[in-house]
Amino acid sequence: MASPARAIRDLADAYSDDLADLNPIIGTMTGLRPGDDRLPDFSPDGQQARDDLDRRTLAAVGGTSAPEDDDERRCARLLRERLSSNLAVSEAGEHLRDVSNIFGPVHVTRLVFTMMPTATDDDWAVIARRMANVPAALAGYTESLRTGAERGLTAAPRQVRTLAGQLADWSAVADGRGWFAGLAAKATVPDSLRGDLDRAADQAGAAVRELGGWLSEDYLPRTEGTPDGVGEERYRVAARQWTGSNLDPREAYDWGWAEFHRLREEITEEASRVLPGASIGEAMAHLNEHGERAEGVPAILARLQGLMDEAIRDLDGTHFDLAGRIRRVEAHEAPPGSAAAPYYVRPDRSFTRPGRTYLPTLGRTSFPVWSLISTWYHEGVPGHHLQMAQWAHLADRLSAFQAGIGQVSACTEGWALYAERLMDELGYLRDPGARLGYLEAQLMRAIRVIIDIGMHLGLPIPGDSPVGAGQHWTPDLGRALFAAHSSEPDSYIDSEITRYLSRPGQAISYKLGERAWLDGREAARKAKGEAFDAKSWHMAALSAGSLGLDDLAAELATL
């Protein structure tokens, strides 16, 4: 019988179990369904089943008494906000035009295979069965896009061309046999299993090629005339999904410009410290040519691993109290055909799979280190890994929903930006260029706020803008502003612009989330005065579970 003190969290756990049945990738990611060989139904019927679950659970939350326990109260608010947001996104038909270069249905279908254990023959048998289900999963996704096209709901051509190109990259792996065949080739298994594994890999690879061809030949012509930007109504719905707030996009846009000008002044000063008299671009070029470099993928992964290991050694006991199983995190190369941005994958709840950071190498073999240092504090420690691993560690006390399934991007990306700032405050960015890299990343996040909102709403560009003054935002102008303030190659910038256009509202979650984390810390510090203890606050904040922006700063202020 459920405990009255945990009624909401028990409901959230039941929801998480049911959702893991409907979306087995979530089951693998969280560890709720180890050994599951299924994949989600990405068809309209599959979405309808998830919508029905959300509606039933929302009704059940409304039937519970007002919670007194803090974890119960936070969980209730998170459930209401997340499920309402899910339904709003579905009602807008976004699943019928979901074409993206990052974390879309196709990407998570491949991603889940990188999360699965491979130590035993039984593990590979599960992988073989799941690979055999890839064609049905991609067919369901195709059905959703086809249904959307019939209703006049299509993605923009830019996103379609990019995804088709990524699928071509996947298919080129392993001498043209495809990414799934390359994964299967790593297995040392008995002949009885080898046949099943290779057949499944071939079927999955054929499905990837078929989807890529359909996107290019059938779907792309139907998208002609679809604008890149989604407009204000769709943007507000999408932004709530990423931030947990019904925010005012114009207030955020104006604040983004204020941050841009503040950071541009600061980074100009930092550039002169790297190379006296140099501009920002000249200082970055100097670091790329003369700064520390890692030659080869193994070397850069070892360097990034060392950064995270050092941070854990130094911060544990001083600024955080880390459980033993949180102290393990790994650096990996991202598979071919990934988007350009680094990313993190959380551990499962049993920590049989550790937290992992991924670096997309994009064909490069030589890596300037200066621009990656603060990024790995963001992706690894004390950023995403400390937050999400702590949630996994406390999943039984919180709920599986608070510990990840109900994740709000502004909460997680905001913490990761806060973590970069913390490492700057603690003096870890002393190496030549390391602080310039941090400020470049901060400036990029401010630019994200400006151009994400600006491109989707077609807002006017102010007269003091270094790019496009007096015009209205377009993807080309957004790219120009990004390129003018970035040391990244063209392929990275193009990938980022496509990402913002295909995931409206996600790009703003970083800086808006950081703002809430900083406001919450400052309010807690003022409330407690000399009694404020940063380590205690950090651990309480990381133990509260996922929170949306409507609640985040206020909750942090009370800790």
UniProtKB/TrEMBL annotation:
Organism of origin: Amycolatopsis albispora
**Segments of this protein annotated with the region Disordered:** 30-72
Q: Compositional bias (Basic and acidic residues) at which positions?
A: 48-57
**What name goes with this protein?**
DUF885 domain-containing protein
Which InterPro entries does the record match to this protein? DUF885
